[in-house]
Amino acid sequence: MPSFDPRKLSRKATNYLLLGLSIPTIHDLYSSTPLEFLRCLNALLAEFDSFQQLHGDSSTAALTRARIPNMFRRPGTKTRRSTSADVTIDDSSASGHHSPATGSSNGGPAPAVMNFAASESDLLPGEEYTYLLTPSLPFDPDFFETFATLCDVLIDCYTRFLALVPSPRECSAPIAELFTKADSKIRKIIVQGVVKDFEDHSRSHARSEVAGLGKVVLGGLM
User: Polar residues: which segments have biased composition (predicted)?
Assistant: First the structure.
């Protein structure tokens, strides 16, 4: 299928991963009321749609392969060459006693923790998002694993909304309108793309089979 092109799958997987990372934030921070939850969810889906339009085939690669050497480095720290003094083991450390000091004995910096690159440097100038998380990814995510995980996240999203609206009495007209908008956007993101790929693939195969059948029929007549 044309949609199974590695470059296209990589772009889709990256987009789905960013959406899957952002939805749980709505669950945790903006779900005190159904209206707040749906408003923030609609805003997130709108930002995700804008992100997809701005980042095409070539620009998405910047997010998935951005500065791998800087993943495990704190901002502002500099690398230095290792020497024999760096591997010297202190007597107290060897006996099981560890010093509470944060730095090394020779005044070197403390061990750096894992820190992904800042997302703002991978976005276009003036491109800002309130709800959509856009971290730099060290590698291209697997499309099928990412798609399945996103479906699980969306199931949790719908379950959370049902918990906020336990009965029809709590479902007012504004809530129903916002839910319809969010549901249509999710269907557009998840369902329409897959259906379109299958339709295009089916059309191409139908054309090739009809053309092959025509050759067989015409060959028998001639």
Answer: 82-104
